[in-house]
Design a protein that fits this description.
Elements (H helix, E strand, L loop, with lengths): L4 E5 L19 E13 L4 E4 L2 E4 L3 E8 L3 E6 L7 E5 L4 E9 L3
Parallel strand pairs: 2-8
Antiparallel strand pairs: 1-2, 2-4, 3-5, 5-7, 6-8
Length: 103
């Protein structure tokens, strides 16, 4: 599935309210977007945040927090830090893995 365009900005705010005083032209500027999916594996091993729709080229921060009796082991793409920077370039899925503590 291709990127879905998103209104990036009007020349000022969106929505933009103004008084029509004469002939005027306004252009809405759109930017492509990408969906970032953030998953926990297993699902009861912790909580993840940061997923959503982002303008391509923007930055997103995804985080993982282990639940009680679980330990965060890393993201499936390699980084071992709880917080992970992602630069939107297309759709992506990141999975945080956790291991259960055994007593």
């Amino acid at each position: 599935m291709g990127a879905v365009p998103q209104l990036e900005r009007w020349p000022t705010n969106n929505p933009y309210t103004f008084t029509v005083a004469s002939n005027m032209n306004y252009t809405a500027i759109f930017a492509p977007t990408a969906v970032l999916n953030v998953l926990a594996n297993p699902t009861n091993g912790g909580n993840v945040t940061g997923g959503g729709t982002y303008v391509v080229g923007s930055n997103a921060l995804i985080t993982a927090t282990a639940t009680n009796l679980w330990q965060f082991m890393g993201w499936a793409d390699g980084p071992l830090t709880h917080a992970h920077d992602y630069r939107a370039s297309g759709g992506a899925t990141y999975t945080a893995t956790s291991n259960r503590w055994v007593w």
